[in-house]
Amino acid sequence: MFGIRFEAQPETILSDALKDCQTAMKTLEERTGPGSEFLGWLDLPSSMKEDGLAASVADAMKGLDDVIVIGIGGSYLGFRSVLAALENPFRSTKPRIHFAGHHLSSGYMKQLLDYLENRSFGIIVISKSGTTTEPAVAFRFLFDRLHRQYGAEGVKKRVVVITDEKKGTLRRLADDLQLQSGVVPDDVGGRYSVFSAVGLVPLAVAGVDVKALLGGAEQAMLHVREKYNEATNPALAYAAYRNSCYRSGKKIELFASYRPELQYVAEWWKQLFGESEGKENKGIYPASVQLTTDLHSMGQWIQEGERTIFETVIDVENDASLKMLKAESDGDGLNYLAGRELNEINRIALRATMEAHRSGGVPVAEFLVPELNAHHIGALLYTFEYACGISAYALGVNPFDQPGVEAYKKNMFRMLGKPGA
Ligand code: PA5
């Protein structure tokens, strides 16, 4: 069942923006817009169903103590967001998952290497280009450790490379050393790659039900790609809502969730929209808050700061059943809540906050998600990807390139003395 719904105050959706989004959706479907050579992600939920790599890597790695997943940007956030949304952070699983290559901190790398001393571990290294500095640096350290521990034959069983099918340093290395490998399709960019081997392989190793994830994404795909009506298509309605807000001077979008499990979905969403839309001096700035936590830090700004923001709330309908206790002496004054579900209290906080923010001049819309499981997370992420394609085309930019990320690299390579830089 495709359960994702989107609700906005009708007056926040401008008819011009909606019309532009309907045209943008047509451009996306007819593959006539800029960057259309990168539309492979549109069909991934169905095309990846038969791919057996994730299951076979999960099987091969199940006896290890630890698996280090190396990657950055789109080669990192999709996996991390789904895992964080679904895992129980208090349960220790085997293999334990760790991240590397998403920054250049030496303290972190040193601690990770110290921790791995004499442990049985494996590596999944993910980089579409195969040349990104941060994951390449991490891989050099971790591969060296693994090689010294297990030798040339041992690493073959413990390293999986996910990269371009033919080109790049990582592909050459994987072929030369006969390492297991998966492919990032040519026509899928990093931030749209969660339903390819980039997300599915590490998720299967971490024990996530990737079939259910793909099933949810596929249902969203079948739903949102057909309907040009904002009342029935949450991706189209969301794209129209955010473009309307932008056109009326609201330049910052706050992704607000009331479930800590969604912290990395927010990070993934920020990358998706930020890298897709922030170009040619245009684009909504995507920001996020964790609520109710941040009501005690950013709440003041949201309620009364500069009126340039709009908010998109993720309301997850179901959560674990936990009833508030009744205390003998009502010392803390909470007995008025006794017997009520904690999730109901959380969702009343959400409603109360939406009302307060609206009355403070912040347009607020919401996504309704039935519960946090692999199926619905798959559906939600696909809905966002599709909305992002529409929204960026309506804004007039290419959603699938990222020319701006080269600027820091050029400077860094020059300062580091990279040959040819
Ligand atoms: O979305 C993108 O294309 C980027 O964020 C990339 O995923 C990121 O720069 C990492 O690139 P690569 O996978 O080539 O190492």
What's the total helix number?
Answer: 15
Q: Point out poorly predicted stretches.
A: none
Write out the strand line-up for the largest beta sheet, numbering strands in chain order. Answer: 1-10-9-7-8
**Biggest β-sheet description:** 5 strands, mixed
CATH superfamily of the largest domain: Glucose-6-phosphate isomerase like protein, domain 1
Taken as a percent bin, the fraction of beta residues is: 5-15%
- Secondary-structure content class: alpha/beta
| First-to-last CA distance | 52 Å
Based on CA atoms alone, the radius of gyration comes out at: 22 Å
Total E-strand runs: 10
Mean pLDDT metric: 96
Query: What is the CATH T-level topology of the largest domain?
Result: Rossmann fold
Shape: globular
The CATH architecture category of the largest domain equals 3-Layer(aba) Sandwich
Instruction: Please write the CATH class name of the largest domain.
Output: Alpha Beta
Order of helices and strands: EHHHEHEHEHEHEHHHEHEHEHEHH
Structure ligands: 5-phosphoarabinonic acid
Count of structural domains: 2
Q: Fraction of residues in helices?
A: 40-55%
